[in-house]
Amino acid sequence: MNQAASIISATPLDEGDAEADAELRFLTVAADLHGQRLDRALAALVPEFSRSYLSQLVGEGAVQLGGQPVRKPAHKVRAGDQLAVELRPTPMSQAFVPQAIPLSVVHEDAHLLVIDKPAGLVVHPAAGHWSGTLLNALLARDAQAALLPRAGIVHRLDKDTSGLMVVARTRPAMDALVARIAAREVRREYLALAHRSWAGPAEREVDAPIGRDARNRLRMAVVDLQRQPGKPAQTRFELIANAPQGCLVRALLRTGRTHQIRVHLAHLGHALVGDALYGGAPAAGLARQALHARRLAFEHPVTGAALAFEAPLPADLAGALAAWGLDYN
Q1: Residue 315: which residues within 8 A CB-CB, separation 6 or more?
Q2: Which residue in 17, 105, 242, 301 could disulfide with 13, CB within 3.0 to 4.6 Å?
Q3: How far apart are CA 3 and CA 45, in angstroms?
Q4: How far is CA 42 from CA 2, 23, 32, in A?
């Protein structure tokens, strides 16, 4: 038996404490941890938490040694030392909880949902957005979503992109949808409002690999695969309407790389309106990136029936088109 896991007791904090969801654990440092750094000893004693999280607790004064707070993760512990650790819930640990967030459901059956995601809704919890996401909404809407990885989410839209998404409700449907997306058997069309008047052919096929931008790790970029890591990416663009200030184009994804439409449009010299990351700026009364997932078509993952859905333009994007005199039918 590994004596490192010598937990004497674990009791919840008092009900009136501000950290009522925290847990107080009393630990004894075992002989095989003698002389170790405090953060390393804690990682062995409480293996379900990361060492970085436990070091953070030490810095916050949430760890006591012999009844006194110790704030240095590098402090050396001795065999027999008595520790008290206040294990506070992390933002990540609270991410996968149901939240009653209204959703616009376009289609629902026993195996899947199709939703019209509003701009501003984050799809999946991540740093800076641990709650208020589509995943939280799905967990509240459907009890069986908790049984699926990522609550059935099989693809994503950026926070500020609006439009259609398909979500699985059963594991067979999820596996089949993931496979069809990978095989490019799910047709996804977008509408994009971009800066600068469109010049050249009304239809363009862009075949330009995408990888992480070497100068800014928050961005993606068109890359040379012989010099930089990346993946092939293809997008078809079709001009719908043109104006001196900008253009409205339809984008059809051939592949599904991160930020693909945004990167390819910027590569063509037509950054999305409102897309500051790739050179766009607020315009025509629109501050968010002007991208809308308009159409979604695929075969039902269980029945094989052909399905196709369209989402109307959101009011902010329709207003921007009107401001620039762009017609969309």
Answers
A1: none
A2: 17
A3: 9
A4: 14, 15, 13
Cα 268 to the chain's mean position, in Å?
27
Residue 290 tokens read as: 């002007």
Q: Give CA–CA dist 26/6, Å, rounded.
A: 9
| H/E segment holding residue 295 | strand 291-299
Q: Are the C-beta atoms of 137 and 120 separated by less than 8 Å?
A: no
CB 61 within 8 A of CB 69: yes
- Return the H-helix or E-strand segment holding 50: none
Residue of 309, 239, 314 whose CA lies nearest to 270: 239
Q: What is the pLDDT of residues 221-230, one digit of tens each?
A: 999 999 999 9
Residue type (1 letter), 139: L
Q: What is the pLDDT of residues 162-209, one digit of tens each?
A: 999 999 999 999 999 999 998 999 999 999 999 999 998 999 999 999
Mean pLDDT of the chain: 90
What the block records as the tokens of 16 is: 């009136």
Q: Is the pTM of this model over 0.85?
A: no
Rounded Cα–Cα distance for residues 223 and 228 (Å)? 6
**264 close to 208: Cβ distance less than 8 angstroms:** yes
Catalytic positions, written as ranges:
158
Judging by DSSP bridges, how do beta strands 162-168 and 291-299 pair with one another? parallel
Total number of residues shown for the chain: 329
Nearest alpha-carbon partner for 256 in 278, 271, 224, 234: 234
| 272: its two tokens | 């999305």
Cα–Cα distance measured from residue 183 to residue 170, given in angstroms and rounded to the nearest whole number: 20
Measured N-to-C along each axis, helices 51-59 and 38-45 cross at an angle, to the nearest 10 degrees, of 120
DSSP 8-state class, residue 149: G
